């Protein structure tokens, strides 16, 4: 098989996959541009005419414009990303590079903490944060991230740090560098892909997280995007699906853009920074 | 009779049986205020479930209330129905619940029985109950204590697509004198004339608690007994399931698969709204969503009476005052304003169901739009039997339960007799577990 | 011998096994704080609650092992375990294979990479959106896209979501559809493989397949391992998608009743938080066992550079 043919085949496979994967998403975009009584009666993707009323209705559905909830979500997301990047990378450095008493046990405990479903944790945790007076603030959603409670990312970074050749930090140590310096100057720059992964995932998961935001953010002034979106749904009086889809599309945009532009940081590994 | 927990006895129990784990010390309801007005400025929280429209209207009503009572500030909180109950349970567990909470018939007993709600009779000074429809008021009571105040009412109805009747040259039935046999004949006829394009009816019974109650009441039976036990005659449930299984088999009704899809799609996206079947079971107030979602000529018909009135008026929702509220008197004032004042009625309309306050209903009459008018007219025309008995503590899962067993029967996985026995046993087990 | 090691050898630097407790303490301080102040308390509380009858509104009542005895005869629990195990064992391997395959395809040397990557990631962004339920019905409903596709080949479809026999497989498909997360992690991992290894392989004249099996795969094993462990944990805890698609019921007829969904129904729907806590700890034991086996087996196939 020649190179050109192989490339063509590769593209065909990719395009086919892309179309299959994207159909539902496109359907949602198209539906957001349809009048409500047509949404469930026209399964195709062809639009008879553009109806932007859903966007207006959705944007102004609540006492705050929808953008207000996006700003709230943005605050939570930003706090969570910064917290995760700092705290998880520190913990990961210790687990991957330092010898200390009971390392395996601490690591096991860390993994166990992500094995319990949130639904039984949430009530005692709510009681705890309520004692702190943190209910109805963003603190319960942000502060734990600064305390590396997202063990998922610690584990992720541990795996990446273990992939960085040890010779690099040993050379630095011989030059007299201590651990803070090795962590800052050698390990962090070399694990940019892992940090970017962490940042992107934290962004997306926090942006979409429903249950804990539902429990802690009580006042509508504190509501975030997932709460506002879910508030469109009404089993009894009927849901304005057009507006729901429209705002789903709007809330999807920032996440999509973050990924589109953030992904190049995924690609800055040892391979591109030269490494060794 | 099982002992009823009041706020005060529970407070004592909480002190005596304090949980060993310090974290849980906050659990258990208690520490609420006295039923007197405060001289200080008061801050209240009110929580409800519902859509954006309800949020807008309720916030507007709250503002009107604040104008009338400058000393009181009110914060509104709203969530989607399912999320609302998760949040409510959590805040009650932390003794951190809103002062006024919107309640549902299937849930309020689960809260009141555990001492989480005020008996509103104690708030008589602030909250007038005298204008509430006397048929509805008892549906918020347990042993005479008014734990929940009905806001609006709803009643079971068949919704029919009159366009489909016209299209296939059929007459709408006379709903004041028809039987289940007539209904079956009409559904069969529609399905035949439809030639596979439509079915006659959705599955309108055996998978929801409303139709189950209707069927059993039609035979002089009740789902729940006075003492809170399950008193359903399993034979009647079997009969209802077999009736619908017959309709499914003959092609008159949707298949079990179509039923599941229909439930998932909601009122406005379901098979009735999209013109794939002619009959559906709804609450009268859902006609508004149905008409706007379908664009079709939807009408409301009474369920077949077979000579015995079995329908019942069920509050669409209630207001309750939580036992942990520090300002129950002000909270009661707020409820009074929302339910009894014309000012609030002007803002809220019939969005929470046909108002339970009869004077307000009369006052609103001229303002209703066409769909709301249909719902109110239907409510006035419908022939009802005795009021239903409220769902006991532990019965909050009766609807998911009947859905699951009904689906098993219609999918042919379980025999109706076995499913009926299992349904009753499981429901009774849930109730027993709370005692 | 590398230059660094040689240097250390000459200088007689301390052997690397000396404990570095002090440094480790400072690096782990945030995590320790989180563990003791935020995480362990609620975990301990849920463990205690698993030995009680607790309805959320009244103080818990100690009942010993009653909750755990009840598990033996709880048929819905048994069926939810069957559903969950099927889901984990089928969806995780498929999802990971797809994610790895596409990551390798999308790694380098093809036009429009950034676009493809973003497109493949898009479904994962939708994740827990309420819109998913409606989307999935338009694809797998009786009149859905999937059946229209089948009709082209003369195959008669069915209501895939509404049929108890196929409902679970639509959720497995949904999970596979959101393979974006493991794919991104694979992509990041691929970028960490030093170019020199590929250069060396190219000098040896290795074929692309051989380069994949002898360079890429071995060096990627820590990441494969990570994805495997985490996806298994996530799949066991899977909740949101089944919750949204089935409207919280786990239906039709419990065919999509995932373990976490059942636990949630008991805890919040039936005010049965004591039993729900016991169920959560059962799940923890199951997941921990799977993870431990994974770690044990990793000794035989995961290669670390250190």
TrEMBL record, chain A:
Gene3D superfamilies: MetI-like (1.10.3720.10). Its main location: membrane. SUPFAM superfamilies: MetI-like. Keywords: Cell membrane, Membrane, Transmembrane, Transmembrane helix, Transport. The keyword Cytoplasm does not apply. Pfam families: BPD_transp_1. This is Carbohydrate ABC transporter membrane protein 2 (CUT1 family). The keyword 4Fe-4S does not apply. The chain crosses the membrane at residues 12-30, 69-93, 105-129, 141-161, 182-207, 241-261. PROSITE patterns: ABC_TM1 (PS50928). It comes from the Bacteria. It is a multi-pass membrane protein. It is found in: Cell membrane. GO terms for cellular component: plasma membrane. Residues 70-262 form the ABC transmembrane type-1 domain. Belongs to the binding-protein-dependent transport system permease family. PANTHER family: ABC TRANSPORTER PERMEASE PROTEIN MG189-RELATED-RELATED, ABC TRANSPORTER PERMEASE PROTEIN YESQ-RELATED.
TrEMBL record, chain B:
It holds the Pfam family SBP_bac_1. PROSITE patterns: PROKAR_LIPOPROTEIN (PS51257). Keywords: Signal. Residues 1-25 form the signal peptide. Transmembrane segments: none annotated. Coiled coil: none annotated. The keyword Signal applies. InterPro entries: Bact_solute-bd_prot1, SBP. The keyword Ribosomal protein does not apply. This is Carbohydrate ABC transporter substrate-binding protein (CUT1 family). It comes from Glycomyces artemisiae.
TrEMBL record, chain C:
It comes from the Bacteria. Pfam families: BPD_transp_1. PANTHER family: ABC TRANSPORTER PERMEASE PROTEIN, ABC TRANSPORTER PERMEASE PROTEIN YESP-RELATED. It comes from Glycomyces artemisiae. It is a multi-pass membrane protein. It is found in: Cell membrane. GO terms for biological process: transmembrane transport. This is Carbohydrate ABC transporter membrane protein 1 (CUT1 family). InterPro entries: ABC_transporter_permease, MetI-like, MetI-like_sf. Belongs to the binding-protein-dependent transport system permease family. GO terms for cellular component: plasma membrane. Keywords: Cell membrane, Membrane, Transmembrane, Transmembrane helix, Transport. Its main location: membrane. The chain crosses the membrane at residues 25-51, 81-106, 118-136, 167-190, 217-236, 242-264, 276-297. PROSITE patterns: ABC_TM1.
């Amino acid at each position: 098989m020649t190179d050109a043919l192989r490339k063509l085949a590769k593209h065909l496979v990719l395009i086919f996959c892309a179309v299959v994967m994207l159909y539902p998403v496109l359907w949602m975009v198209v539906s957001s541009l349809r009048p409500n009584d047509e949404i469930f009666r026209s399964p195709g993707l062809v639009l008879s005419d553009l109806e932007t009323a859903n966007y207006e209705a959705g944007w102004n559905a609540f006492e705050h414009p929808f953008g207000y909830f996006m700003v709230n979500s943005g605050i939570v997301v930003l706090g969570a990303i910064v917290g995760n990047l700092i705290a998880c990378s520190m913990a990961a450095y210790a687990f991957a590079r330092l010898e200390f008493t009971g390392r395996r046990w601490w690591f096991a405990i860390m993994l166990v903490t992500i094995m319990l479903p949130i639904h039984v944790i949430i009530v005692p945790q709510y009681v705890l944060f309520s004692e702190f007076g943190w209910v109805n603030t963003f603190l319960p959603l942000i502060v734990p991230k600064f305390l590396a409670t997202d063990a998922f990312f610690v584990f992720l970074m541990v795996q990446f740090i273990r992939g960085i050749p040890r010779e690099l930090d040993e050379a630095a140590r011989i030059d007299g560098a201590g651990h803070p310096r090795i962590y800052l100057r050698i390990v962090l720059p070399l694990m940019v892909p892992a940090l970017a992964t962490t940042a992107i995932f934290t962004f997306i998961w926090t942006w979409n997280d429903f249950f804990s935001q539902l429990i802690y953010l009580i006042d509508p002034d504190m509501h975030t995007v997932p709460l506002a979106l879910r508030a469109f749904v009404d089993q009894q009086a009927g849901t304005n699906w057009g507006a729901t889809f429209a705002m789903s599309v709007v809330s999807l945009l920032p996440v999509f853009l973050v990924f589109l532009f953030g992904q190049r940081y995924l690609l800055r590994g040892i391979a591109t920074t030269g490494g060794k | 009779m099982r002992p009823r927990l009041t706020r005060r006895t529970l407070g004592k129990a909480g002190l005596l049986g304090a949980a060993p784990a310090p974290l849980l010390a906050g659990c258990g309801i208690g520490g609420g205020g006295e039923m007197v007005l405060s001289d200080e400025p008061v801050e209240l929280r009110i929580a409800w479930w519902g859509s954006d429209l309800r949020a807008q209207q309720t916030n507007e009503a709250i503002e009107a209330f604040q104008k009338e009572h400058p000393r009181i500030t009110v914060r509104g909180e709203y969530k989607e129905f399912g999320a609302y109950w998760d949040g409510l349970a959590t805040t009650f567990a932390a003794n951190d619940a809103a002062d006024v909470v919107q309640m549902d018939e299937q849930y309020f007993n689960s809260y009141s029985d555990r001492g989480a709600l005020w008996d509103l009779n104690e708030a008589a000074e602030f909250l007038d109950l005298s204008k509430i429809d006397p048929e509805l008021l008892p549906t918020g009571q347990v042993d005479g204590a008014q734990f929940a105040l009905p806001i609006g009412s709803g009643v079971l109805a068949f919704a029919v697509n009159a366009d489909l009747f016209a299209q296939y040259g059929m007459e709408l039935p006379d709903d004041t004198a028809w039987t289940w046999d007539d209904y079956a004949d009409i559904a069969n006829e529609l399905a035949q004339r439809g030639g596979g394009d439509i079915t006659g009816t959705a599955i309108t019974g055996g998978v929801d608690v409303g139709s189950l109650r209707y069927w059993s009441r039609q035979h002089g039976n009740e789902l729940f007994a006075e003492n809170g036990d399950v008193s359903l005659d399993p034979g009647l449930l079997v009969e209802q399931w077999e009736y619908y299984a017959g309709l499914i088999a003959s092609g008159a009704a949707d298949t079990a698969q179509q039923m599941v899809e229909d439930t998932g799609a909601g009122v406005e996206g379901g098979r009735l709204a999209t013109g794939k079947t002619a009959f559906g079971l709804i609450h009268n107030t859902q006609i508004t969503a149905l008409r706007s979602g379908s664009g079709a000529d939807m009408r409301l018909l009474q369920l077949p009476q077979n000579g015995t009135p079995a329908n019942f008026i069920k509050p669409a929702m209630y207001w309750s005052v939580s036992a942990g509220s520090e300002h129950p008197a002000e909270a009661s004032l707020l409820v009074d304003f929302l339910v009894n004042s014309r000012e609030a009625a002007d803002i809220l309309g019939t969005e929470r169901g046909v108002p339970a306050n009869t004077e307000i209903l009369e006052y609103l009459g001229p303002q209703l739009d066409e769909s709301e008018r249909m719902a109110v007219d239907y409510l006035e025309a419908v022939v009802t039997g005795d009021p239903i008995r409220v769902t006991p503590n532990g019965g909050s899962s009766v609807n998911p339960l009947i859905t699951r067993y009904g689906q098993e029967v219609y999918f042919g996985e379980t025999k109706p007799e076995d499913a009926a026995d299992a349904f009753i046993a499981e429901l009774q087990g849930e109730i027993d577990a709370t005692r | 011998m590398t230059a660094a090691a040689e240097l250390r050898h000459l200088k007689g630097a301390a052997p690397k096994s000396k404990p570095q407790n002090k440094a480790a303490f400072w690096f782990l301080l945030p995590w320790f704080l989180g563990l003791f102040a935020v995480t362990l308390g609620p975990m301990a509380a849920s463990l205690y609650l698993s030995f009680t009858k607790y309805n959320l509104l009244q103080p818990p009542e100690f009942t010993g092992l009653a909750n755990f005895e009840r598990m033996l005869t709880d048929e819905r629990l048994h069926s939810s375990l069957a559903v969950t195990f099927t889901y984990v064992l089928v969806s995780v391997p498929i999802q990971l294979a797809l994610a790895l395959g596409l990551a390798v395809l999308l790694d380098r040397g093809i036009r429009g990479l950034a676009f493809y990557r973003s497109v493949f990631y898009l479904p994962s962004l939708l994740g827990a959106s309420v819109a998913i339920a409606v989307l999935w019905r338009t694809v797998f409903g009786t009149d859905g896209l999937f059946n229209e596709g089948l009709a082209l080949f003369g195959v008669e479809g069915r209501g895939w979501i509404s049929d108890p026999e196929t409902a679970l497989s639509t959720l497995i498909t949904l999970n596979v559809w959101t393979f974006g997360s493991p794919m991104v992690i694979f992509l990041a991992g691929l970028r960490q493989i030093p170019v020199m290894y590929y250069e060396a392989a190219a000098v040896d004249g290795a074929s692309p397949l051989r380069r994949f099996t002898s360079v890429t795969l071995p060096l990627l094993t820590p990441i494969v391992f990570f994805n495997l462990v985490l996806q298994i944990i996530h799949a066991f805890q899977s909740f949101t998608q089944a919750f949204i698609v089935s409207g919280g019921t786990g239906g039709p007829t419990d065919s999509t009743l995932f373990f976490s969904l059942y636990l949630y129904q008991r805890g919040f729907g039936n005010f049965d938080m004591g039993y729900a806590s016991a169920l959560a700890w059962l799940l923890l034991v199951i997941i921990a066992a799977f993870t431990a086996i994974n770690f044990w087996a990793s000794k035989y196939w995961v290669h670390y550079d250190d």
